[in-house]
Write a structure and sequence with these properties.
Number of strands: 7
Strand order of the largest sheet: 3-2-1-4-5-7-6
Helix content: 25-40%
Order of helices and strands: HHEHEHEEHEHEE
Number of helices: 6
Shape: globular
Largest sheet: 7 strands, mixed
Distance between the termini: 66 Å
Radius of gyration: 18 Å
Length: about 240
């Protein structure tokens, strides 16, 4: 008897309408997945990365404007809004937004009309984004030094932050002189966590499932002044 191929959560192939039957339940995840399938433009792994990251972040950090740096199609930011409707809005920033990001956004709005008018897409440099203390800054698979840019920008604004680093630069990344004890990728991320904590942040270090991505270390932090259940609001 032939064995059906496994449905890998970490595959790069696009989800399409042919995959809708794989997500037949009534859970929020299944409903989001069916919308992604209808849009037909998102790699499978990006669905699972966004979901696994967003739900872990929302366990610790509520409210705030969501600012997704390197956000691509913007799924992470929109899932963050769906998981916590107390966030007023989201902005998705990338130096080059994929042309199909509006297709995904339109499909999500059709399913959740409350997203309409609450998500902005901005093609611009990350350094040019104006952040505030009431923001939660997120970046899923912030490649190389982008993770450090996200952390530095968030700390400078006193904003909450969550990153899922990848593509570590062993030549230029700060290992905190820990590479003698641990592999370079882990040393770089451990140093990032220590730097965030030294900056007055309460931190959480988590992982998302390794079958979604082997680069699965999630670093989250909120400044001491940020109440996790009631973040500061803009004046």
């Amino acid at each position: 008897m032939a064995v059906a191929p496994s449905f890998s959560h970490g595959a790069h192939g696009r989800l399409t309408a042919h995959d809708r039957g794989r997500f037949a339940g009534d859970s929020l995840f299944d409903r989001i997945a069916r919308a992604v399938c209808e849009a037909g433009c998102l790699p499978r792994k990006e669905l699972y990365e966004a979901w696994e990251m967003a739900r872990r972040v929302r366990r610790h950090v509520r409210g705030g404007r969501v600012v997704d740096l390197g956000g691509g199609h913007g799924l992470l930011a929109q899932v963050m809004l769906l998981l916590d409707d107390s966030s007023p809005s989201a902005v998705v920033v990338d130096v080059a937004l994929p042309p199909s990001h509006l297709r995904l956004h339109e499909v999500l709005i059709a399913q959740w009309p409350r997203l309409a008018g609450r998500v902005a897409f901005e093609p611009r440099r990350y350094e040019d984004v104006v952040l505030a203390a009431a923001d939660i800054v997120v970046s899923c698979h912030a490649c190389g030094s982008l993770t450090d840019v996200v952390l530095d920008r968030a700390v400078a604004a006193g904003a909450a932050v969550a990153v899922l680093p990848c593509c570590h630069d062993h030549a230029r990344g700060d290992t905190g002189e820990l590479a003698g004890w641990m592999v370079a990728d882990l040393a770089i991320d451990a140093t990032r966590a220590a730097r965030l904590r030294a900056g007055g942040y309460r931190i959480w270090t988590k992982t998302i499932p390794a079958d979604v991505t082997p680069r699965n270390r999630l670093l989250m932090g909120v400044p001491a002044a940020w109440e996790t259940t009631s973040p500061p609001r803009p004046a």
